[in-house]
Amino acid sequence: MPEQALYKTIRDDLLRAIENGTLLPDQALPSERELCQRYGTSRMTVRHAVTELETLGSVYRVQGKGTFVSQSKLVQPLMQVSGFTEDMAKRGKAASSQILFAGTKRADAAIAKLGVDEIPLQTLFALNTRAAKGEILWRFSWPLAALNLVLLAIPLSYTNPRAGRSLSLVIAVLIFVLYLNGISIGQTWVRGGKMEWYTGVILINGSVFFITAMLFIRRVWMTRWLPLAWTEWPYRLREARKEREK
């Protein structure tokens, strides 16, 4: 058999032995002398086959000790998503989980040195302190505030050519200042134990959302804040008095 075909045979035989479990992970491969005797070839051909296995990652060399079978690799196809338990099952291994601790304990020195504004959100929930709850309110309120202000800008962007833009601008600045102060006051109340963080999130952001919804309703379905009959009632009453006086 030609040397080129023979080295492929050696490579494939060793690879097959690794895949079917004949050669286990971290187990030494047969020595070069043994492989030479088994296949009746030179050391150069055997080394060529083993070098290709090393390139494939199937084996690894240890200087002065020999060549050993590598640990099985976890191959994840790019177009297929599977869980860790499923991957382990495909490789004949059982995945399991173990609860090391369940309960409440004092924060370690590294966490204790951090301010609440530097602690991850998941850790803030676990701390369950007033300062942590205040920070949770702050972190939840700002994304909601950004959304509310974007929505608020839509009805306020409408301008009456006769009234100009100054009124809408004043209303926008006033709402922003009150909103910012409302979040700060809510955080202070939560830290003082006067209310829960979720109550503050709902009250503060819900109030601004309600104002935004009312502005939308006014711009889309109404042309004035009060019904026309209500605004005309004082004038009608005055005209009725004048008629009676005559």
Q: What does the average pLDDT come to?
A: 80
Shape: elongated
Order of helices and strands: HHHEEHHHHHHH
Rg result: 38 Å
The parts where pLDDT drops under 50 for at least 5 residues are: none
Total number of beta strands:
2
Percent helix, as a range, is: 55-70%
- Helix and strand content put the structural class at mainly alpha
Summarize the main sheet: 2 strands, antiparallel
Description:
Strand 1 (59-62) and strand 2 (66-69) form a beta hairpin. The chain has a two-stranded antiparallel sheet. The radius of gyration is 38 Å and the shape is elongated. The model has no long low-confidence stretch (mean pLDDT 80). It is 63% helix and 3% strand. By secondary structure, it is mostly helical. The N and C termini lie far apart (131 Å).
Question: What would a concise description of this structure say?
Answer:
This protein is mainly alpha-helical and 246 residues long.
Architecture blueprint of SSEs:
Layout: H1 3-19, H2 32-39, H3 43-56, E1 59-62, E2 66-69, H4 84-90, H5 109-113, H6 121-127, H7 130-156, H8 166-191, H9 197-221, H10 228-245
Antiparallel strand pairs: 1-2
Name the descriptors.
246 residues, mainly alpha, two-stranded antiparallel sheet, 10 helices
